[in-house]
Amino acid sequence: MDKIIEKAQTLIEALPYIRRFAGSVVVIKIGGSAMVNEEIKNSIIQDIAMMKRIGMKPVVVHGGGTAITEIMDRLGKETLFNDGLRVTDAETAKIAEMVLSGTISKEIVNSLQGQGIDAVGINGKDGDTLIASKKIVDKGDLGFVGEVEKVNTTLLDTLMTNDFVPVVAPVGTDLKGNTYNINADYAASALAGALGAQKLVFLTDVEGILKDKDDPKSILSRLTLYEAENYIKDGTISGGMIPKAQCCMDGIRKGVQSVHILDGRIPHSMLLEIFTNEGIGTMMTR
Predict the structure, then answer these.
(1) Residue 7 pLDDT level (bands cut at 50, 70, 90)
(2) What dihedral angle (degrees, nearest 10) is formed by the CA atoms of 108, 114, 118, 119?
(3) Do domains 55-196 and 198-286 have the same CATH topology?
(4) CA 131, CA 15: separation in Å to the nearest integer?
(5) Percent of the chain predicted with pLDDT > 70
(6) pLDDT band at 275, cuts 50/70/90?
(7) pTM to 2 decimals?
């Protein structure tokens, strides 16, 4: 009986959050283990389905670097990186688009529809959703790696108005028709800002933003944009935590009300973060 009562109390605790976020857009970037572990992926899909059922408007953005590398290996094509970014020639761009827009996107769509949720897979080229330009770096040439210059929300708005969950592959095009592979984190930030999202959620393989990358207990559960900037300056946030913090900061600067970094390996981490008083990851606000 105690367990049953505890379940009821959890539902009661969630009610204010359900009322608050009903009708709001939440952009969810799926990456890390969620892309390769079926159990984790199923938990995330269930969370997205629940969010949709209670009136939220989820938009899914996904990466797929591991899958792209696997296909390139099969084709005998060398994978090159420059400062953590994949060097993308014209052939690699085609492979990335095939894997992201074909295999991965359709797997997520199929999983959502298995939960009774209508979903549609698109990439940034569809409806000119993501207009990109070539990313310029200090050392070398990344090829067809792009940065988001403009977001056109017409197609996304149409899909959400008609009760579909958009699943977006981070592939864009420039005004000359060139195809660009775009970092999924920054594609998600750009989409969230353009859509006026209430929340932007990054599902990763870490607990959140940590003061000490080797100590999971050093998690920063809440911080502001200003605090994050200062933590990076004074070295409190360092190493591999810096890119994660910068993605959150990018979302806040683009107008998202709150950005969350969650450990996607924890079952139902999104529901625990959004619909409980304690939360489990890092939440950044302005």
Answers:
(1) low
(2) 10
(3) yes
(4) 39
(5) 96
(6) confident
(7) 0.93
Q: What class, spelled out in words, does domain 55-196 have in CATH?
A: alpha beta
Element (H, E) at 61: strand 57-62
pLDDT in tens, 88-107: 999 999 999 999 999 999 99
Round the average pLDDT of the chain to a whole number and report it. Answer: 90
Collapsed DSSP state (helix, strand, coil) of residue 150: strand
Q: Where are the domains of the chain?
A: 55-196, 198-286
- Cα torsion angle, 228, 151, 195, 168, sign: negative
Q: Does domain 198-286 have CATH number 3.30.450.20?
A: no
Tell which residue, 280, 272, 217, 226, has the closest CA to residue 248. Answer: 226
Q: Please work out, in degrees rounded to the nearest 5, the angle formed at the alpha carbon of residue 68 by the alpha carbons of 65 and 74.
A: 145
* DSSP bridge pairs for 260: 201, 283
pLDDT of residue 6: 65
- Report residue 151 as tokens: 């977001």
